[in-house]
Structure formats: C-alpha cells, structure tokens
Design brief:
alpha+beta, Multidrug efflux transporter AcrB transmembrane fold, Alpha-Beta Plaits, Gyrase A, domain 2, 3 domains, four-stranded antiparallel beta sheet, 47% helix, 20% strand, elongated
Amino acid sequence: MSRRPYVTLVVIIILIVLAVWVDLNKTITILNPFNQSTLFSRNVDIQLGLDLRGGLQTLLEADLPATTAVSADDLNVARSILESRANALGVSEVIMQSAPPRRIVAEFPGLQDPQQVVAALQETGLLEFVGMNTSNYPIVNEGTVIQTDYGTTSSTATPQAGTTPSEVPSPSETPTASLAPTNTAATTQTSATPVPTASTTQAPIIYHTVMTGAALNSVNVTTDSLGAYQIAFTLKSNATTLFSDYTGAHVNDYLAIVLDKKVISVPKINQQISGGQGVIQGNFTADTANTLAIQLRYGSLPIPLKVVESQLVGPTLGAESVRRSLLAGIIGLSAVVLFMAFYYRLPGFLADMALVVYALLSLMIFKLIPVFLTLSGVAGFILSIGMAVDANILIFERLKEELRSGRNLRQAIELGWGRAWPSIRDSNSSTLITCVILYWFGSTFGASVVQGFALTLFLGVLVSLFTAVIVTRTFLHVVLDNIKFAEHPRWFGI
C-alpha cells in the first residue's frame, strides 16, 4: 500500500491538534523556549456581532443640503476615517458600512451606553481650517465652540443669529501655536506678544471656512532643528493654490483648526505658505503633538456627518439568538451525521469524522481572521454544514457504482473521486461566485445581514472542499484499502 495516505494523515492530525488548541482558548500565546519571553500573543475569542451580543446601531447621514450631491468615494473615505477614529478613541470592534447615497451604518457590539457612543461618533466629524483676525473674525480660545459657513446654503460669512464665541483670549492667553512653511525656521508665539482680542459684547459671528480636512494629504509629528515637536502636513494638489493665496493675503492673522465646530488649535500665519507643505509650530509635547496629529489625520472627513438614528439592541435578545442558533446547529449536524452513517454505513461514518474535522477547522478560521458572527452568519455556517457533505455524497454514490461493477476498493475510491470531481468543482464554484456577489452587494449597500451570511458560507464551502477532497479521501484509503469488499458488502450499504 502506498505511504502517501499516511503522510497526509499525519498532516491532518497536526491540523486537528492546532484547531483544537485554538478553539479551546480565548488567547493564544507562543513563548520563547530559551528565555520564556513572549514571541506571539493574540486574542482569539469568538467575536459576536450586534444581534448576538447586543450593543448599539447608529445611522449617520451627510450633514449637507439635500441638493448637494455626495459621491460614493467621499462616503467610503468618511466611513474609513470614522472607523479609524472610533478605534483610536477606544471604541473597539466597531463595524461601519456605507449605505449610499448619503448614509453610513455604524455598529458597536457590546456597548450599552448610547450617549457615550454617540458622543464618540460626534467627535469624529468635520475638520475645518477657519480664518481668524482682529477685525471681522475675533480670535477665540481653544475649546471654544463656534459657527462656520461650511455646509450652509450661503458661502459668505455674514453675522447672523447663533452661538456666540464663549470666550476670547486676553493678551496673556495668546495661542502658542504658529503656522509656518516647511522651509522657514520655527517662530513660536509667547505670552509676551499681545494679541488683539474680541469684545465680549460682540454680536454672534459665523466664521469663514478656508478649507476642510479633505484637503490634507498627510500629517506627521516631526521635530525642528532644536528638537521641538511640530506637526508637518502636506496638501492635495487641488488645495495648494487656495492655501497659498490665503496665507499670502493673511500674514500675521490666525488660522484656527476646528473639529466639529470646536477650536482645537489657533496657530498664527507667519508668512505665505506655498508648495502645499507646512508645519504647525508651538509649545507641543510629544503627547499633545501626537494628539493633534491624530485629530488632523483622522478628522479630515470629506463631508460633514450627523447622527440621525440610534437603536439599542439588548443583550437578552442576543443571548436568545445564540441559544436558538446553537440548537439549530446541533439539530442540523446530528441529522446529517445520522443520515450519512445510516445510508452509507462505513464510508458514511468516515465522512462523519471528516465533518468533525470540518467543524474544528471552520471554528479555528473564524477565530483567527476574526469573523464577527451575526445571526445571518450563523445561518450561513449551518447551511455550509449541508454543503460539507454534498461532495461526500457524490463521491460515495460513484464509489458504490464502481464496487457494483467489480472494482476493488482502492480502484473504486480513486475512480469514484475522479468521476465525481467535475460535479463537485462546478457546484462549489457556483456557490463561491454567488457568495462573492452577495458580499459585494452587502458591502455596497450597507446590508450587513447579507454580508455576514455570504462570508461564513464562503469560508464554509472552502473548508468543505478541503475536507471532502483531502480528509475524506485520506480516511477512505487508510481504513478501506485493507478491507475485502466481497466479505463485507453491507458495510458499504450494498
């Protein structure tokens, strides 16, 4: 007998041991055997989605006039940035999907405080560069909430009713940051240089937005020749001329950096900044510079967004869904196991063993990727259990035909698999193509239910192909090659 099935069997056993190790642990850690230091550590706990774990689902919409078109690219960029900002703020396992033409769906599994999550989302909104001077647009302190003309139907910054800047700086509260081109030495403002302030009785003002964060191409923390921290930025080509013209016309004015209408920095324009590159200089520490860089980098949304709806999914519903899903999975798996063992006898029992391997490998893959299991995802996995034995049924029916025609077991196994393979290949390929289409549909239109179903079914079909083509075939050779079919026809359901 060929040794090849036994070599493959050893590889399968190693995979089974690895799968059991991953499946039974929430964290996998690999230590250095020489000094016991950690070489690799990762959390592999099962990630449950919103409908199974409970949490918050929030709907965001472009905060622009209905007549303003929102491109799909801008919506996708905004979704990506919001997801990065939410993760950076400590909101983990967030799932965000674009829902064209103007909406983004955000899911936060496990979070039960809607106000906390909505507040976190609102902090990840629109970044603006707002002009401030000593006449029309008074200089305000960091942290002040202001109104701007971006996103309104009027593009001119004329005074109108609204929120008045709550504070204005006195000469001793001069903003410490300064804006300079990259080829200019740092010039830091100090409290010794008085800055004209706005009168506390000034009428409400709407500040003019020079450009938004969409104009930023890159933002990084650097140091100058003296080792002081500064923030270097580059602009996209279509914003370079605009920024150069504005800074040239407003030397010694201030250009405030505003995130969601809240002023986060007020650097001074020292001189014209051309070439699309500049630095924000000031009395930064490593932490404050990095914080501002993160706000600039992840706050540069191409469109403003607002929260239009929030829905809390209770953990009780999630727990009940998990219970029923597990029950459905057990019933489905038991029915398949009993059918295969009863109808195909010994080959069916071997297929049941391969099905156990399939379940172990699938769970390992779900934990390693990781896959966020939703109720629809669990449904896709349960469906893939039936798909997992589909190939085995085709092989076993061909096997029985070859045995009836007088082939020995080894020949029957090889011929049965070879003749069943075209049907296995075509049926599974069509299922995989359908899964790709469904996943694209769910991703494009924000249908997470469809997306979760498609993903788990796709992975399940791939693993089922492996178990049918490799695992079941190996088990058949190892067990049946030494059995004489003529002496035990009933073992094969014949």
